[in-house]
Write a structure and sequence with these properties.
Blueprint (H helix, E strand, L loop, with lengths): L1 H5 L2 H22 L8 H13 L18 H13 L3 H27 L1 H12 L2 H5 L7 H21 L1 H17 L10 H7 L4 H30 L9 H9 L10 H6 L2 E2 L2 E2 L3 H12 L1 H15 L5 H8 L7 H27 L6 H19 L11 H20 L7 H31 L6
Helix pairs in contact: 2-5, 2-6, 3-4, 5-6, 5-8, 5-19, 6-19, 8-9, 9-11, 10-11, 10-18, 12-14, 14-15, 15-18, 15-20, 17-19, 17-20
Length: 449
């Protein structure tokens, strides 16, 4: 830590950027033969059509609003600037990953000092799953960067006034264009403002500014989609599809019932994705206990062990790797995930409740978990929280763990209470991870589900 904090700021930025770049370049070299899969193909096709001047249209050339527009627009701009090639998309993800590390380092430094901020950026630079996403044409890296920028601006708004708060709201709007899940996040911000001790009038005023700027960022796309769908609230028409997929009777059985789930969205010869909301609500009302079980599934998926970063990459290789290589990658990714999560919890427990970053992270996490419980959970959905949690991981490693070890818990009630609380929270999170594996077993019929 002394060595990290002693480096001059300019050299530190260069060191952090080079570390993040090196890790991602090495991974990209190892995955040079990989081909895009699943959702990636749709994003690439949308970006290619945009870059060619055809507009936001699907493979048949028809205007679409199913997929969020944010990532395809940025990818299309990269195509226009650097040329349409697989390396352009990978370069974009690498640069986004580096930028996220720099933003996280800045947030951590502002919140807890130079040592914690720099260690957080360094840990994120080599965090396996975030490195793995450098070769995936998916929305998560760009969404995570925009969410981190929004958090940084909202934190600045606590001391620098409404201009930074407005910027945070606008950044949330841009993030919503990439992943619409955060569109309603401003509605949860009064809880954060109250945690900071602000009066209700001030809390509501800041929320209104944030929400207005969020709406301002997404309004051009809402106007476009209103002309297409007749709905003023549509950023992406896949919301009903996702809601039905997470609340249908076959949600616990994975791919086994997916075709049947999709078939029920058809009305005559057309697919009506909005119908998914009606079907989902009807299913919940008909069997509330089963709906409760599905909520547990979705929450467990949110905190699940990290598999997507490694497996999505490996599925795109022309020749599947050996089982040993697959298990090694999954083992490294999840060892890092458990380490990050455990020490992040410790860092949060050692931080006052009114500390702005701590309370904001808890509010954002609670909001995203709630959305996952309503719609559908997935290990990818906690991806955007990892950079912010990594700040508390760095704090937990460098400050809270040494402080906890320096006292004898049986003789220090506060330390003993913190140790037990930490152990209980980590145990609950581990149970959620194991529960996820149990649900996966049910999906594939290993337990006769």
């Amino acid at each position: 830590m002394d060595g990290i904090t002693a480096i001059r700021q300019g050299r530190w930025v260069l060191l952090l950027a080079c570390t993040a770049l090196s890790a991602r370049v090495l991974w990209c070299a190892a995955l040079a033969s990989r081909q895009p899969q699943f959702d990636e193909r749709h994003y690439l096709a949308l970006a290619a059509n945009l870059a060619a001047g055809k507009g936001y249209v699907d493979e048949a050339g028809h205007p679409t609003a199913y997929w969020p527009v944010g990532y395809p627009v940025v990818l299309a701009a990269s195509y226009r600037l650097l040329g349409q090639s697989p390396m352009t998309g990978i370069l974009l993800q690498v640069l986004v990953g580096i930028a996220t590390c720099l933003v996280v380092s800045r947030i951590g430094t502002s919140a807890f000092g130079v040592g914690v901020g720099r260690l957080a950026g360094l840990l994120l630079a080599v965090y396996p799953t975030h490195v793995f996403y450098a070769t995936l044409y998916l929305t998560e890296p760009l969404f995570t960067l925009l969410l981190a920028i929004a958090v940084a601006l909202l934190l600045q708004g606590c001391t620098r006034g409404m201009a930074a708060t407005a910027g945070g709201g606008f950044a949330l709007g841009l993030a919503a264009l990439v992943r619409p899940v955060v569109l309603l996040l401003p509605l949860a911000l009064p809880l954060w403002h109250r945690c900071l001790g602000l009066r209700w009038r001030v809390a509501l005023a800041r929320t209104l500014v944030t929400g207005f700027c969020t709406l301002l960022a997404v309004s051009p796309w809402l106007v476009r989609n209103h002309k297409l769908t007749g709905n003023w609230t549509t950023i992406a028409t896949n919301a009903g599809h996702v809601f039905w997929g997470g609340n249908s009777p076959g949600a616990l059985r994975g791919d086994a019932d997916r075709q049947e789930i999709n078939k029920q969205l058809r009305e005559d010869s057309d697919v009506n994705f909005a119908r998914g909301f009606r079907l989902g609500v009807r299913t919940i009302a008909a069997a509330p206990l089963r709906a409760g079980a599905r909520v547990l599934q979705k929450v467990s998926y949110f905190f699940a062990l990290e598999t997507d970063g490694a497996l999505w990459n490996l599925k795109g290789l022309p020749t599947p790797p050996s089982l040993a290589v697959t298990l090694l990658l999954l083992g490294v990714a999840n060892a890092a995930y458990v380490f990050m999560l455990s020490f992040a919890v410790l860092g949060l427990l050692g931080t006052p409740r009114r500390q702005p970053l701590s309370s904001l992270l808890l509010v954002v996490t609670g909001y995203l978990v709630t959305v996952a419980a309503v719609f559908v959970g997935d290990p990818r959905y906690h991806y955007g929280l990892v950079p912010l949690a990594m700040i508390f991981t760095a704090k937990g490693c460098t400050e809270d763990w040494p402080a906890l070890r320096s006292v004898t818990p049986p003789k220090e009630p506060i330390a003993r209470r913190r140790l037990w609380t930490w152990s209980a929270i980590v145990l609950v999170l581990l149970i959620l991870m194991v529960t996820h594996l149990a649900f996966k077993a049910l999906e594939f019929g290993w337990l006769g589900g």
